């Protein structure tokens, strides 16, 4: 489940970018397989979209993908500009006020959080398998991007808090996963946590933690694709971190 829905959601977001956000000159681009599908759909529908715009990427993978599609002005993060519109995927999301979500399986959470926060308008794109009623129920861990110079202190603090965690192991090299900005990725188990949003905020406040994978109140819209060919748009209340219900629109 999810592959057909992912394609439907990606096509819907690509069409939004080519219509509603056609005049946006600075575009932020997230990381992951769903984002790659949005870029693929943009290239199919209008290859000229990549010319004459500034693109802000959240990972080297996205940066290289944008360059391969013809984008000439691409940089990481928000060093020189802030996005007029930003789109990204998620590992899990609750559809409601603030649209709280878990992100960061691609280890790009620090730059993803910067772009989501500083963008004028942020769109999340997911398939139906990523939607839950309570954040954490899908069993996805919450990643932390940790400064290597603070690693022992962070680990000791997490143990004192009674938090279950592990360093994410790299697949293609020995040792832990290191983000594109030099952070060590720590995965926090939240399956039995009642308030994941509150825990995410607490973890992000620890010295040395640059970002947590809990994103709440930073997306304006969520586009959900379904395997039956439908896509549904949910409007979020940006700046709100709760999970109260909101009305979908087709």
Automatic annotation (TrEMBL):
GO terms for biological process: D-ribose metabolic process; pentose-phosphate shunt, non-oxidative branch. Keywords: Isomerase. Gene3D superfamilies: 3.30.70.260, 3.40.50.1360. One of its GO terms (molecular function) is ribose-5-phosphate isomerase activity. Its EC number is 5.3.1.6. One of its GO terms (cellular component) is cytosol. InterPro entries: NagB/RpiA_transferase-like, Ribose5P_isomerase_type_A. SUPFAM superfamilies: D-ribose-5-phosphate isomerase (RpiA), lid domain (SSF75445), NagB/RpiA/CoA transferase-like (SSF100950). It comes from the Archaea. It is an enzyme of class 5 (isomerase). Transmembrane segments: none annotated. Pfam families: Rib_5-P_isom_A. PANTHER family: RIBOSE-5-PHOSPHATE ISOMERASE. This is Ribose 5-phosphate isomerase A. It comes from Pyrolobus fumarii (strain DSM 11204 / 1A).
